[in-house]
Amino acid sequence: MMPSIESYLSEQSRQFRIAAMQGAGIVFLGNFAGMVAGLVLSPPPSTNIPKTVGGSLFGGLVGIAIAFSLIVKKTRELVNHESN
Prior knowledge:
mainly alpha
């Protein structure tokens, strides 16, 4: 028996939600890692706020790039699966 279109669409929707949650988690971890790296790179007596903010932004950009690549990879897998 063929699966219904509703079950197929709900499964695809679930897969995209999972990819989006993973992406949000990666962006959060990237921001946190960038902030920690900014704090570690600045000397203890004088916390360099611009370096901390810059590290956090850099970590966030890395996280966004990883999340975007995950979403593109998942979309490519779905398109390849549908074409077969």
